[in-house]
Design brief:
Layout: E1 2-4, E2 8-12, H1 18-25, H2 28-31, H3 41-54, E3 62-69, E4 75-85, E5 90-97, H4 106-121, E6 126-132, H5 136-144, E7 148-159, E8 162-172, H6 173-182
Parallel strand pairs: 5-6
Antiparallel strand pairs: 1-2, 2-3, 3-4, 4-5, 6-8, 7-8
Helix pairs in contact: 1-3
């Protein structure tokens, strides 16, 4: 499976992707929003293998795809949708991008395509996402996608020896559809 945008290819992970993921996830700018202080090769290999294993799941509930630049084939991150409740048609999305590619609109482009896939191909009714409140770039991405802030949970996560607030955003299928009609 693969999805395309103007500048990006979103494709299934392969075993050969782990070195690029390791390089991206060991960046101090990336690590500041996660529990990890460093990433080891074995951890990242297992991380990528989990995405590969999800490809075999039937019915499939998790789609985590590599974000690749069309211009040069470089893997710069990942983006995915996970079905939380098939009966309620609810899912969540998540994405990560190498810090050297922040500020170019790639996260918005990739996450927008994942939203489209979630609503159009998977038939979801509600899609949500979470971010730490300090990750203002990620919150801006979610807002650009038309997602609404539903919760600001104070001191919800313990990351790097201190409490962090967590934000939850969501969008409904009819909200997504009406903004698609406008654009």
């Amino acid at each position: 499976m693969h999805l395309e945008t103007q500048r990006l290819l979103l494709r299934e992970f392969t075993e050969n992707d782990w070195p690029a993921v390791l390089a991206n996830q060991n960046d101090p700018l990336y690590l500041r929003y996660y529990h990890w202080t460093e990433r080891m090769a074995a951890d990242v290999k297992a991380f990528v293998q989990m995405f590969i294993d999800n490809q075999q799941e039937r019915p499939r509930k998790k789609y985590q795809l590599a974000i690749v630049l069309k211009s040069n084939g470089q893997l710069i991150g990942s983006c995915g949708v996970r079905i939380n409740d098939p009966a309620l048609r609810e899912a969540n999305i998540g994405y990560e991008l190498a810090s050297r590619h922040w500020g170019n609109g790639y996260a918005t482009e990739a996450a927008g395509e994942i939203l489209r896939f979630g609503f159009t191909d998977l038939g979801m009714h509600r899609i949500w996402a979470m971010t730490t409140a300090e990750n203002k770039g990620s919150a801006r991405v979610l807002q650009k996608l038309g997602m609404r802030l539903e919760a600001h949970e104070r001191e919800k996560e313990w990351i790097k020896d201190r409490w962090r607030d967590r934000l939850t955003f969501a969008i409904l299928d009819h909200e997504w559809q009406s903004q698609e009609l406008i654009s």
